[in-house]
Amino acid sequence: MPSPLPPLLYTDTLTSADMLYFGRVEVHDPFVAFGARGKKFTVQGSLEFGRVKKTSAFDVVLSREDWLDAAKKKFGPTAGVAEMIVCLARAHGVKAFRIADDFSASLYVKLTKLGLRLEFANGMLFPEREVKSDQEAAFIREGNRLSSVGFATAEKILRAARIKGRTLVHQGQLLTSERLRFLIDVAIKEQGGEARDTIVAGGDQACDPHERGSGPLRPHELIILDIFPRHAASGYYGDMTRTYLKGRPREVQRRMVATVYEAMRGAIRGIRAGVDGRDVHQGVVDFFKSEGYETKRDANGATGFIHGTGHGLGLAVHDPGSRLGAVSSKLKEGAVVTVEPGLYYPGLGGCRWEDVVQVTATGAKLLSRHPYNWEIR
Amino acid sequence: MPSPLPPLLYTDTLTSADMLYFGRVEVHDPFVAFGARGKKFTVQGSLEFGRVKKTSAFDVVLSREDWLDAAKKKFGPTAGVAEMIVCLARAHGVKAFRIADDFSASLYVKLTKLGLRLEFANGMLFPEREVKSDQEAAFIREGNRLSSVGFATAEKILRAARIKGRTLVHQGQLLTSERLRFLIDVAIKEQGGEARDTIVAGGDQACDPHERGSGPLRPHELIILDIFPRHAASGYYGDMTRTYLKGRPREVQRRMVATVYEAMRGAIRGIRAGVDGRDVHQGVVDFFKSEGYETKRDANGATGFIHGTGHGLGLAVHDPGSRLGAVSSKLKEGAVVTVEPGLYYPGLGGCRWEDVVQVTATGAKLLSRHPYNWEIR
Fold first, then answer.
1. Do B28 and A318 touch (CB under 8 A)?
2. B165, B236: one domain
3. Does B51 contact A at CB distance below 8 Å?
């Protein structure tokens, strides 16, 4: 197999986890990075130059001002990023680059017109991103530890809260999704994490799995907490979900919660390198059906098990590569995936359990740990 | 002038403020959105369908499952997003779309091969994003009010802190950049904002303008606080900078702080619709030079005034359109820009002041308000 072409990137690290993976430094405006002769190059303006030189994984940091000047000398005064990249490629002996599928289309057209050969990665730009090193797995564990900090905070508050009619009262205040989210996110921040869009959704709100939740939390209703904080020091994410109920569960709630938990345990047992993630997902679909939990879709949305079983996790909350869903995806040794079955029925509410595992040759290694006690009196 | 082609987007709202502007709903995985016959369409999977239908600005929400099925019927079982878009275009009578310059290159190539005509926006996909309505200006004011909450928090802490040798002590703890950032960000979160990467950089750390700052804050040194929170309810950003010093300033620090303040005031006086932002920026460059503050660049970075004077602000921290920098940019009536000159000299430290203005026919309307008291005893 011929060795792959060196990569070319033009994006920022808020948008692109690939760029963060490549350079290991955060830069919030688009910039050029590329490989040549086995080394990592980047081009930075004076505003970022010093910081990137000091703290990044780039082997060589070039000056944008200098290289734009060079491009203008060669191509005339209107030369921009495209012409600069062509100059850089020539100077570093690169005739063709591989690019991400979501590379800027206008830049692609300009570079192609200028005669630079570009090949799509046609999948992951850095396939090695799928397989997590021990160090990366440790960072993801840190992310999940931060999720666990969030759950512990929430449990303490739900335990302390008093039921007053159809509301919960905590420290004299009505307990809302917003308030609980705030206290969870602050606890995580204090421990070195950044939680954004934490889901605290009770009752029927949880039936839209991406609804963040708002307004008063109700007693005797299922409450889904999905916490996916970024471990600030490393940039890696945790992603875990727990379901709670403050008060007295009904038997139908109990059964649903137990069934979703069984589904998660079953899915984890089915994971090992070489297995197709689609089969793991289908196993969950079949299990729910066999337990009498139907999935239906109509003009107003869907009920039942209405999302995939799991996705990759790493420098992005939804990392590319191995996953557990409707599309075929052979699980790779070392890949990290979430396992998060859920059931959603308006009237009954939603339930989701989510843990994180690393795929091994013989099974799945748990990278997340937090109890599953969901009933809070 | 012929009316512009309807837009086509395939991205997510974390990555693309254009998508957020178009649909006014947050969706964190890529999805299709387009215009046809003056209406806004989107295609959503069952996971997002209900929420998007209820809360977005899209006129029509279509089912991804249904339209992928349609694409497979027409193009065969491997049909994906590209084939689905072609089906959607045909069904809605659209022969050509305009796309953002950073549209996915691989999707661009596929769609073009399938015969769909795509034209680059060649600049902003939604030029109207540059001109902020009264409602949008109010949201940006809210963002800046959140920045001001952060400054007030920091001032209170710096005032309460005691100087102990070369350190600051607050509530018995060493006051660090990390601690102050945490307390600022929490105060902002409590008020409905999301602050990320808040800059709290003292001494020479501030000489890298994008360095966030770390470790103990020192007395008698300049401390730059750059706070750019997102107003969570609207998605709009604030962006303000204040410089502080706890202890006794030296005369060189006093003079630098006063000079940067004068530069900001001068730049704001020079702003009105029709003026070239490059001229405003050049005015700041010239002013600093006339005051004896040289800008220099060498292999290790740059010192002096090493960044642009200001950028657009809105649904992104760096909004496209009108700006104050080295590139020509005619300021549009209604545009919102930051005004943020700064000086950076290792040994002396960094100073930056930043306010936000909306361009009017006759001048600049301030959208940010917070005092400029920087000496804290």
1. yes
2. yes
3. yes
Residues B311 and B225 in one domain: yes
**Tokens found for residue B352:** 């930056």
* Pairwise CB contact (< 8 Å): A50 & B106: no
Interface test with B, best of A63, A106, A173 (most B CBs within 10 A): A106
Cβ <8 Å between A106 and B103: yes
Residue A280 and residue B113: Cα distance in Å, rounded? 36
ipTM computed for the complex: 0.90
Q: What is the mean pLDDT of each run of 10 residues along chain B (377 residues)?
A: 84 94 94 96 90 94 95 96 98 97 98 97 95 98 98 98 97 97 95 94 93 96 98 96 98 98 98 98 98 88 92 96 96 98 97 98 98 97
Q: Per-residue pLDDT tens for B150-196?
A: 999 999 999 999 999 999 999 999 999 999 999 999 999 999 999 98
DSSP code per residue over B189-258: HHTTEE--S-EEEEGGGGGSTT----SB--TTSEEEEEE--EETTT--B--EEEEEEES---HHHHHHHH
The shortest CB-CB distance from B189 to any of A104, A107, A185 is to: A185
The domain that holds B241 is classified in CATH as 3.90.230.10
Give the B window 261-320 contacts with A, CB below 8 Å.
297, 300-302, 306-307, 317-318
Residues B224 and B228: their CA atoms lie apart, in Å, by 13
My answer on whether A217 and A291 are in the same domain is yes
User: Do residues B157 and B100 both lie within one domain?
Assistant: no
B322 is in which domain, residue-wise? 130-376
pLDDT digits 0-9 by tens, A75-114: 999 999 999 999 999 999 999 999 999 999 999 999 999 9
Q: Is residue A3 part of a domain?
A: no
- Considering only CA atoms, which of B156, B163, B200 is closest in space to residue B178? B200
The nearest CA of chain B is from the CA of A40 a distance in Å of: 18
Contact B47 A210 (CB under 8 A): yes
- Do B138 and B23 fall into the same domain? no
